Every structure is written in C-alpha cells, then in structure tokens.
Alpha-1,4 glucan phosphorylase (Desulfobacter hydrogenophilus), 816 residues
Amino acid sequence: MKPTVNKISKSDLKTSIDYHLRCSLCKETPTKDYRDLFLSTAFSLRDRMAEKILHTEQRYQASQTKRVYYLSLEFLIGRLMGNNLHNLGMFDVCREFMAEAGIDIEEVREQENDPGLGNGGLGRLAACFLDSMATLDIAGFGYGIHYEYGLFKQEIDNGYQREKPDNWLADLNPWEFKRTDEKCIIPIKGRIEHFQDRDGEYNPMWLDWNFIVGIPFDIPVVGYGGKTVNWLRLYGAGSSADFDIQIFNEGDYFRAVEQKVESETITKMLYPLDTIMSGRELRLVQEYFLVACTLKDIIRRYMKNNENFDRFPDQVAIQMNDTHPSLAVAELMRLLVDEYALPWGHAWEITQQTLAYTNHTVLAEALEKWPAALLERIIPRHLQIIYEINRQFLEKIAARYPNDVDLLQRMSLIEEGESKQVRMAHLALVGSHSVNGVSSLHTEILKQDNFSDFYALWPERFVNVTNGITQRRWLLGANPRLAELITDTIGDSWITDLSQLRRLEPHADQTVFMDEFRDIKRANKEDLSKIISDTLWLSIDPDSLFDIHIKRIHEYKRQLLKIMHIVHEYLQIIRGEKTPTVAKTFIFAGKAAPGYWVAKQIIKLIHNVGQVINQDRRVRDALKVVFLPDYSVSLAEKIIPAADLSEQISMAGQEASGTGNMKFMLNGALTVGTLDGANVEMLEEAGADNIFIFGLKAEEITDMIKKKNYHPVEYYRLFPEIRRVLDAFRDNTFCPDEQGIFQWIYHRMMNNEDSYFHLPDFSPYIQVQDQIEAEYLDPVNWTKKAILNVARSGKFSSDRAISDYNRLIWNKNAQS
Ligand code: 26V
C-alpha cells in the first residue's frame, strides 16, 4: 500500500505551516525558530488528521463496524511528528521543504517533548497496537489517562539516580483536541442504602457520593497510508463548575477550592512501577476513574444506534491491558444493572462476552490486590458487586468440585487474612471471555502455574498472542538508512507486511548487499558515538562491538549479570590472563523505580564500574562502559539501530515477552539471551545458528526452587571466576572512595540469597560471550547472521499481533 491518498505539494505544506505560524502562534514568517516550526508543522498535520478522523468515523458508522476499546493506564506513545509524517506520506515533502529553508528536519523533531505516559513494555506495546489497528483499518481506540506528569526524568548525580518531575504539558501539546463538550461526571465515595423494589427484590442505592469530572483529550492516531485515523482518548480529572458554585453560594469558599484541587490531583501523575501499590489510594482512584469515564463513553456511543444492550458484545470489544483497568468488570455490571435495569444474569453475560484480559507479568509482587476496606470507602457499590460476582462464582465451583475448600480459597476473588483483599486478576479472569499471555512460554506458564485452577475450569478461555512492535516506528522511522536499503532491495511492501522481509534471505551472503548493510550499521554506530560524546564527554570507538542492555532496571532482568561479566573481562585483561581480540563498548540505559533500593544500587554499580574501567589505561582500547541517562522512547530509537549485540538475559520464566528484543532483531543486532519470553520464538524464527542462547530453562529453575537445591555459596566455592568477581565487590575495587557500598552483593550471595539465579547462569554466560567475541572477529559471518535476523523478524510485527487479537479474541464468534 503506497501512501498516495495524501499527496501534498511542498507549496501546500508551506501555506499551511505559514498560516499556523501567523494565526495559531502569532509569529512572523518565515521563521528559523525550531520550536515554532515544530508547532506549526504539528498543527498542519493535525488539520489533515482531523478531517480524516471525521471521514473514518463516517465509514465506521455506515458499516456499523465493531469497535475495539483498548483500556490501559499507560500509553508510551513517543514523539509523534516523525511517525505522523511517515504515515501520512508527507515525510519526504516536509524534509525537502525544510531543507530548502536551510533547516534540518531532525533538529525540528528534537523540539518535541517525548510524553512519558508509561513505565515500559506494557505502555509501549499499547502504543504499537494503536499504530497497527489504524494501519489495519480496525476501528480500535485507546483509552487512558491524561497525566499532567509522566514518568519521572532521570538524572545521575555521582552515579546515583535522582528523579525529577516530567512536566511534559508545560509547553503546548499541539496534537490533542480538548473536548470539554464531552466531559462526564463520575460518582465516587458515598454510602449504600439497602432498599427493596416493588417486587421485594434487593435494590441497593448508592447515595451521597461526590463526583469527579472527566475531560477527554483526543490524540489522532493515523494508520500508514493515511486512510484510517483513529484516536487515543486520554481523560484528565477536573471538578464541576456547577458543583463549585453551589458550595460557593453556601459561602464556603475554601471547601470549594479544596474540592477542586482534590479532583484535579487524581490525574496529576503516573505512578512508577514500585514495590507495593496497594497502599496507594490515589492509584486505585485513577484506575476507577479511567474505567468509569471510558465505559460511559462507550455506552453513549453505542446507544446512538441501539435501543437495548442485545447487540453490545457484537458491537463492542474491550481489551483490559493487564489488571489495571479490571474494575471494568464491576463498573459495567453496575451500569447495566443499576442504571439500565438489566437483570443480573443478562448483564453478566454481556459483561463476559465484551471484556477480555491480557496478563503481562507472572511476578508475584506485581499481581494487583486492593484492600476491600479501601474499595468500600472509594467505590462501595463496586465492592458489593464484586462480592456478589464472587458468591455466584464460588457457588458454581463448589457444585462442580464438591468438598474442595482449598480450591475455593485459591480461586476466590477475595483473599482472606488479616484484612480482606480483592484479587484483581481473578476479577478480570472471571469477568472476561478471554485471557491471554504475551508469548507462548508466558501463556504456558499462566496455564500450568499462576492460573492453573482457572485453566482446568475454562481451558477454552486461554489464548496466546505473542507481542509485536510496529515496523513503522522501529525501522522506517528509527533506522532510515536500513529502511532505504531494504526498500531498494525488495520494495516497500514490508512497511505493511513485515513477513516480506523474508525476501532478504537470498541477499544475506551477497557481497554488495552485505557491504551496504555493514556500512549502515557503522554509520548508525557513529551517530550514537556522537550522542554519547555529547552527553557524557566520553569518546567511543565506532568500530568496537556495541553490546547493549537497555530496559527498566530490575533484578529479574539481571543487569547485575551483565556487570559481573564486564568485571570478569576487566579482571582477566588487567591480570594478563586474556589478550582482548575485540574492543567492546557496553551500553546501558534504564530507570529504577524510586523506591526500589537494589535497582538504584545497580545503577550506581554500573557507573562505578564504568568509572574504574574507562579510566584504566590498561584497557583503554578494549573496554568502555556507558550509562545513558533518562531512557525514553526517543532515546531507544537512537540506540537500537546502532546495536551489534542485544542483551536479553532475564531469569528464565520471568520476562513475560519483552519487546525490546524484537526491536533489536529488526534492526540487525544479534541477540544473546536466555530461553525466556519471546526469545524462545525468536530462536525458532532466526534458527539456532543466528542467536546466542544460554542458561537455565524456566522449568529447570522451577525445579531447583521446588527442591530447594540451589545454594549460591556452592557456586562461589566451585567457580574461581565467580569468586573473583564477588570478591571485587567485597573488596571495594569499584568504590575505593566509598568503602563498603557494594558489599551487599557479596553478602547476599553468601547468605544463599540469589532469587534471580545469577550464579548458575554466570559460567554459561561467560562461555557464550567468548563465542560471541570469536564470531564477531569474522565480519562476513556476523553480517550474514545479522541480515538473517532482520529477514526473519517478520513474526514480531504488531500488525501480526493485532490480527491475532482480532481473530482470536475480538471477533471470536464472527464468521471471518
Ligand atoms: C510490575 C511491577 C509492580 C511492582 C513491583 C515491580 C514490578 C515489576 C514489573 C511489573 C510489570 C508490569 C507489567 C509489565 O509491564 N509487563 C511487561 O509487559 C510487556 C508487554 O507485554 C512485556 O513485553 C514484558 O515482558 C513485561 O514485563
């Protein structure tokens, strides 16, 4: 599909940009001010997208298309200018227009804030899915929160992470439409009055509630080719002017202002993934607020064409991105039963048929539970509904498996204990017709382990949809050199059908193609070296092997294993045990949750190891360690195209899928990884010769945990290379001026505490790294493998993932 629909001439674009410079920004034309140019270009694109939103809507209306609503507390959309230009088919025209005025479009793109409305993989996945739904012409819409402050900005001070607020809206956001006319009112708090209706049926009333106002902000989402423009609707919280006036009239000025401030606080900031969320009342309110605003909006739209709810599941699919929006189960039931007076059973059928749930993690500490007492205070009616859902559910279980009290306790939506807790995953599972994991390994683990009782009950509900990424952002946008080479070689159909990349395979051993491919990688590495030298004043050799570990800092992702390997290499070289054959640059980036002590220590460790190694003349030409601060989507776009080696070394069984792994593969890096998440499928696609797999498998680890036969101390005794690295942490080798700060690592291992299995995987990791070094010495062989990785990455397009959702979940009962 070629983006011909939108052909725009340079002079039309100029007219539009000039118009916005003068009329929207009140600035003189022409201008060389990058910020003004960014804003006026964005406004020009928004004009076009607004028109297309209306056309798209007319089409959806005419065909009565089923609509998909993707509910997520996070959308990590990244900068939009480049992506919108590409998808509208206007990138080249815009670049030329700017070039003629002596302006580099990249400088203009740099002006855009990168909205950090997500923590990591889950939020970025949601953004890739929006791009794919629009490109596939699916009526799919994102619903999320208009946080005033995104994820904190990371600064580094003496190697320590410092968090700074991310006030991304301080400047104008040119993409969004604020739709005050579509604001909604959401009830909260209050009490339940236990009434009976005329027939003597229980009919509770939710009374004396306060209310919050939800104000939608719509951001257009344009599909490639520009035919379809959907939108992402983000709700900001405000208070009602009418309500304020009432209190004002009562003469209580301060209470009126307090009420306003309290409401607006709800969407102030995104919560960073932290250890315990259940104490954070405001987070629960955010989850409820999103769900309540969204369902009101969905039903309002549905009711335009319908008189009752009979067609609701045929017209509406709601995907819950993890359990964060799982209160949708209770809220939809409340709306149907309390507000639209449907019988419970009918409402329940509709709810189940409409909702679907995606699980994104097996980490126990990440499974959401909320204290029942908190729910009772914030949303008393919902707690009642959850209890009723649970009562009916457990009744069925008891009938089917009599006398199994244990099972009832395990499956209950309520965890009994000192204080009752609501298990949100169980609520989502029971209230949906589908639950999916995000890679085949992850889905298997859900079936066999976390949700095995539910799998035994409803095997047909469990589906796998392996994650994917959009090639429009992660290749066409992020790696223009490689994109051009590919298009010159096989045409541009890969932009909307990534499986076409297979046609590169015959070129994988053709000298001319290989040389060009290698030159591109080298040019990308030069670009990244420049960024590193500009931000860190560190000079990097673009011919060194770029070995890259970028993602959230978490123990299960094992940045510590990577650092142990670096320390091992360093010690080997300075002790004369190894003559380095390949110069290596180790690049890290990632944020640690503000309350996660170990993760923050790991950042400090990376910096200190870097400081020692980068200053040591003995390894000057062999090793460099770099930590790029403030990881973000736009930084990832610059780092990934420059990678030779992609580190995906999580403890097996812990990384649900990973999506960074796919981005590296698509950009011609080789992967070193454990058999975890989607790495398993990357191995299947790439072939064992083209990926470096090492380490324990998920079931081996489970087995060791079950048998309690893993003792880190034994590894310390048995393996000199482990001993040496751990002793270096104990002996302050990397903190001569800050004595003792890394001893916790040594002590943990000596205490037999290594929950993430660093030590059993250490020797295999070193071995595979030695193999990698040897293979990198043969550039022809390496380049061939890199090309094969690109050629075989087609499965990992989010277009494939969205087609899977569409077929297996959103249209399960449809004929197509
Ligand atoms: C949540 C929490 C909460 C508190 C403690 C620490 C912690 C650590 C991780 C999480 C994960 C939240 C869900 C999530 O982001 N999962 C990621 O989803 C991606 C998209 O499916 C997937 O590729 C990643 O493997 C998965 O970690």
Remarks:
- The first strand starts at residue 67 and ends at 71.
- The radius of gyration is 27 Å.
- The mean pLDDT is 95.
- The pocket of 26V is lined by residues 120-122, 125, 273-275, 322, 360-361, 363, 365-366, 438, 467, 554, 655-659, 677 (CB under 6 Å).
